[in-house]
TrEMBL record, chain A:
The lineage of its organism: Bacteria, Bacillati, Actinomycetota, Actinomycetes, Kitasatosporales. Residues 64-73 have a biased composition (Basic and acidic residues). Residues 278-333 form the PucR C-terminal helix-turn-helix domain. InterPro entries: CdaR-like_regulators, PucR_C-HTH_dom, PucR_C-HTH_sf. Pfam families: HTH_30. This is PucR family transcriptional regulator. Residues 64-85 are annotated as: Disordered. It comes from Streptomyces acidicola.
Automatic annotation (TrEMBL), chain B:
This is Alpha/beta hydrolase. Residues 89-295 form the Alpha/beta hydrolase fold-3 domain. InterPro entries: AB_hydrolase_3, AB_hydrolase_fold, GDXG_lipolytic_enzyme. Pfam families: Abhydrolase_3. Keywords: Hydrolase. GO terms for molecular function: hydrolase activity. It comes from the Bacteria. Coiled coil: none annotated.
């Protein structure tokens, strides 16, 4: 191979050299060679040290062109030719060749070696990241009420939940744009905000492990009550199913995209009338007093009174009586549930 | 029954993929010229042998066997050595039919660098132009000269290790028998690397590996036929031609034998080691899994080659006792 490496370099950029490189790595991959053998192949064929760095998976292999393994903690020189192993470039194969730019053969070596290395890493170290909490297959199994109990318990154990302890509780989290998550829980305690992922989130109730499909259903319902928290869509970004109580029953009655009831039509007409309408009505529905509502939307108390008089004329019902306020709250909730998003 | 061959080691399989075109597994007598040509790229210059002045390199013409032409010894001495150093007496490989005394000497120089030893590599006449006993008699003549002139070349006559790979391993084993039987110089040890020992060419490994690797059953038959002609495989083949034919393997210097599990010579090598033990002798045997014939030379960077080379050096260190 010493001779071979010499001859390959001499042949550069002869296509014959590239063909031999391809044959070499194909054969290594075929016989399921390990990482060191692949990095060694790159070093020997390129005639310079080669190194593989994958910090995420704690892989560090460096081989000299004579085939000896010599790892190092020093960072690779960014000017060396390299091939990324992951889309973010955090893991890569490097040829420690300074000076002249990479040759055609270098490029072929990097491409073929990296391709084979990716397969070995996936086979032997699992796909990054390795945290089981992010393993979608385990989470899905645990949340699937039709999956056999045994499979769900196994998935729970692999996710780090103590299934032997009957006091173990967990909750499901439904997020608007991420995969489902499982959070281990203590009965009667709310999860800390820092334990929750960012973004709009429905938080399911804490339940025994095998009841997680129920927690998941409740979390998804809670997610429908969340809002962007903007003037166009005022409301909380995180909703706990535990806080909804009977209000969650509304979710079953309102099908997203279906024809809304007359009160919601009236609400839509009012909202379309002036830019401040929606935030003002939301403040009235969501705070303890009109004074607090005025502070929430940052207007004087008398201005709020004027606005509500105008709103009541558009809606056709009072919002400052207990019954009218409930009707407003229901209308706002139904309007939210009727939207396709949540 | 065709036996499935053991798989090649992954790295070696890949290397074989790229050397295969210069070294086909099988060739007949008509392929000898081509085979000689194919190895020409391995030729080493004096400058390469000297390793930047580490060794003094010399080609010395010395007397051959009685009534035969003189032979040539390649002598590499550590520069500035005070003398009395171990000597590695090297016999090259090449199936009895190809190669010269520079083939494979790189490996002996690697040991010499570690052990501060002298390397002597013998040029012997090749078959089929020169059938048995020409090759082994040349090798014996070279050993005689080396033992008698050890002081002159900075060597210790009591510490001559004879070594060779492939056909060179076979000739080295034959040399150990010959010098025992003739009362010639007694080597300190014999290193038989993937040795070619048995002209019968009929072991399970020979059948198993037909058409695979770089030296299969057909090539092996070509080599033995070149050396022995019609006598190959017959009843009256000399043990000095094919050491596996020796009935007595006692009284030999300590042996080191190694071989790949995926090659023609696997079974004759392991059998030879067993017979040395059965005769009360000393032998160390390594069978490296998935190694093809001569893999450590073709793919020295491979992990298996590195382990192979390390085992040989460790044996030599213990043997020379320093």
């Amino acid at each position: 191979m010493k001779e071979l490496a010499g001859r390959l370099t001499a042949l550069d950029p002869d296509a014959g050299a590239a063909v031999r490189v391809i044959a070499y790595f194909d054969r290594l991959a075929e016989s399921r060679a390990g990482l060191e053998a692949l990095v060694r192949g790159a070093a020997v064929l390129a005639g310079c040290p080669a190194r593989l760095v994958d910090a995420g998976r704690r892989v560090r292999v460096r081989v000299e062109p004579d085939g000896s393994r010599r790892d190092t903690d020093l960072p690779p020189d960014t000017r060396w030719p390299s091939e990324s192993l992951t889309p973010d470039g955090a893991a890569a194969l490097w040829l420690e060749r300074s000076g002249a730019g990479p040759s055609v053969v270098d490029a072929v070596i990097l491409e073929r070696a990296a391709g084979a290395i990716r397969l070995v890493l996936d086979r032997t170290r699992g796909r990054a990241p390795v945290s089981p909490a992010d393993d979608p297959a385990l989470v899905e199994t645990l949340l699937d009420p039709t999956a056999p109990e045994r499979a769900r318990l196994l998935a729970a154990r692999r996710l780090g939940l103590d299934t032997a302890d009957p006091a173990t509780r967990a909750r499901a989290l439904a997020s608007l744009d991420g995969p489902p998550r499982i959070l281990s829980a203590h009965l009667g305690e709310r999860p800390a905000d820092t334990a929750l992922p960012a973004g709009r989130l429905g938080v399911g109730p804490a339940v025994p492990v095998l009841d997680l499909p129920r927690s998941w259903a409740a979390a998804r319902t809670a997610l429908r009550f969340t809002a962007e928290g903007t003037a166009r869509d005022p409301g909380p970004g995180v909703v706990h199913a535990d806080d909804l109580g009977g209000i969650s029953l509304l979710a079953d009655l309102v099908v997203p995209g279906a024809e809304p009831p007359p009160d919601v039509h009236a609400l839509e007409r009012a909202v379309a009338d002036t830019p401040w309408m929606l935030v003002t009505l939301h403040a009235v529905a969501a705070t303890a007093s009109l004074r607090a509502a005025a502070a929430e939307v940052n207007v004087h108390h008398s201005t709020l009174q004027d606005r509500l008089t105008h709103a009541e004329s558009l809606l056709g019902w009072p919002v400052r009586t207990p019954q009218g306020r409930l009707r407003l709250q229901l209308s706002l909730a139904v309007r939210k549930l009727a939207q396709e998003t949540g | 029954m065709t036996l499935p061959p053991p798989p090649f080691d992954p790295e070696l399989a890949a290397a074989l993929e790229v050397v295969a075109e210069t070294l086909p597994s099988s060739f007949g007598l008509d392929g000898i010229a081509e085979r000689r040509q194919g190895l020409a790229f391995l030729d080493t210059s004096d400058e390469q042998l000297s390793r930047d002045g580490l060794f003094e390199v010399e080609d010395r013409a010395v007397p051959g066997p009685q009534g035969a032409p003189g032979i040539s010894l390649l002598i590499c001495r550590p520069a500035g050595s005070v003398g009395g150093r171990p000597v590695i007496y090297h016999t090259h490989g090449g199936g009895m039919i190809v190669g010269n005394n520079r083939l494979g000497v790189d490996m002996a120089l690697d040991w010499a660098r570690e052990l501060d030893a002298v390397v002597v590599s013998v040029e012997y006449r090749l078959a089929p132009e020169h059938p048995h006993p020409a090759p082994v008699e040349d090798v014996y003549a070279g050993l005689l000269w080396t033992a008698e002139h050890a002081d002159e070349i900075g060597g210790d006559p009591e510490r001559i290790v004879i070594a060779g790979a492939s056909a060179g391993g076979g000739l080295t084993a034959a040399l150990a028998l010959l010098t025992r039987d003739r009362g010639g110089p007694r080597p300190l040890g014999q290193m038989l690397m993937c040795p070619m020992l048995d002209d019968r060419n009929d072991t399970p490994s020979a059948h198993q590996m037909a058409g695979l690797g770089v030296w299969d059953q057909k090539s092996n038959e070509t080599g033995w036929t070149a050396l022995l002609g019609d006598r190959r495989g017959g009843p009256d083949v000399s043990p000095y031609a094919a050491p596996a034919r020796a009935e007595d393997l006692s009284g030999l210097p300590p042996a080191f034998l190694d071989v790949g599990s995926a090659e023609t010579f696997r079974d004759e090598t392991t059998a030879y080691a067993s017979r040395i033990w059965q005769a009360g002798g000393v032998a160390e045997l390594h069978v490296w899994p998935g190694g093809f014939h001569g893999y450590d030379g073709f793919a020295p960077q491979a992990a298996l080659s590195q382990a192979t080379v390390a085992a040989r050096l460790a044996w030599l260190r213990r043997l020379v006792g320093e």
